[in-house]
């Protein structure tokens, strides 16, 4: 089963936060590239800003990213809390790859000058644009049998990541999607999610 054969409905329903991931992928790197490029091309953005930027790191490059985060956290986290953080870092490092989601402020600034009435809204819409890309890729990877979890270690690694991969420093890092083939039984072991009644959360009129 893959992107082409899983229904949109099933991919949405099956997507979960999976932390127990392996250094394997269910798809080729070529397929991964295709999926990411399609998302960047087709996911909408506010006023068609096309402000989303993604950086895909796999294998050694993924390890390098989590080494950067771990080193920075080591300097910040008190010794008594380190073990918990170390284990989390080990979990992320143990995955196949990470997608870094950035927003480029340049197109946002251009839109703010062009549409001054909405100037104060564009930064928020830029966050929405990033979130749309995050959800699309999280769900698209799910449809390929990959597991993923979403992290927010920005802005800690921003500078070092910019130096390491020659990423413009102006790009603003929003989130990190860690992914890989789920460890044996990881998906099955997930607890059912507590859910507020959907009737309270979705209202319908005139149906
Ligand atoms: C906007 C957003 C931010 C999130 N941030 C984090 C995060 O920083 N770390 C983390 O482990 N999970 C994060 N999550 C995952 C949520 O905790 C998770 O999606 C939620 O509990 C529902 O569980 P599920 O993903 O298994 O459906 C985030 C999810 C969303 C949508």
Automatic annotation (TrEMBL):
Span of domain Nitroreductase: 12-180
Any one GO BP annotation for this protein: cellular response to oxidative stress
Gene Ontology CC entries for this record: cytoplasm; nucleus
Pfam families with a match to the protein in the record: Nitroreductase
MF terms (GO), sorted A to Z: oxidoreductase activity
UniProt keyword list: Cytoplasm, Nucleus, Oxidoreductase
InterPro entries: Frm2/Hbn1 (IPR033877), Nitroreductase (IPR029479), Nitroreductase-like (IPR000415)
Keyword Nucleus assigned: yes
Keyword Cytoplasm: yes
Subcellular location: Cytoplasm; Nucleus
Superkingdom of this protein's organism: Eukaryota
Family, per entry: Belongs to the nitroreductase family.
PANTHER family: FATTY ACID REPRESSION MUTANT PROTEIN 2-RELATED
Name assigned to this protein: Nitroreductase domain-containing protein
Upper taxonomic lineage: Eukaryota, Fungi, Dikarya, Ascomycota, Pezizomycotina
């Amino acid at each position: 089963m893959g992107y082409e054969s899983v229904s949109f409905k099933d991919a949405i329903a099956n997507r979960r936060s999976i932390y127990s991931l392996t250094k394997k992928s269910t798809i080729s790197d070529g397929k991964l590239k295709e999926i990411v490029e399609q998302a960047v091309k087709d996911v909408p953005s506010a006023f068609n800003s096309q402000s989303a930027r993604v950086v895909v790191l796999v294998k050694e490059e993924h390890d390098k990213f989590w080494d950067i985060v771990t080193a920075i956290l080591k300097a910040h986290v008190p010794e008594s809390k380190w073990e918990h953080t170390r284990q989390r870092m080990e979990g992320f490092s143990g995955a196949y790859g990470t997608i870094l989601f950035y927003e480029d402020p340049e197109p946002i600034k251009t839109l703010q000058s062009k549409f001054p009435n909405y100037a104060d809204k564009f930064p928020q819409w830029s966050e929405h644009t990033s979130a749309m890309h995050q959800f699309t890729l999280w769900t698209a990877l799910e449809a390929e049998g990959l597991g993923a979890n979403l992290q927010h270690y920005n802005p800690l690694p921003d500078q070092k990541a910019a130096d390491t991969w020659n990423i413009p420093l102006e790009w603003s890092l929003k989130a990190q999607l860690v992914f890989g083939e789920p460890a044996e039984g990881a998906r099955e072991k997930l607890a059912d999610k507590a859910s507020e009644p959907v009737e309270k959360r979705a209202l319908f009129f005139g149906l």
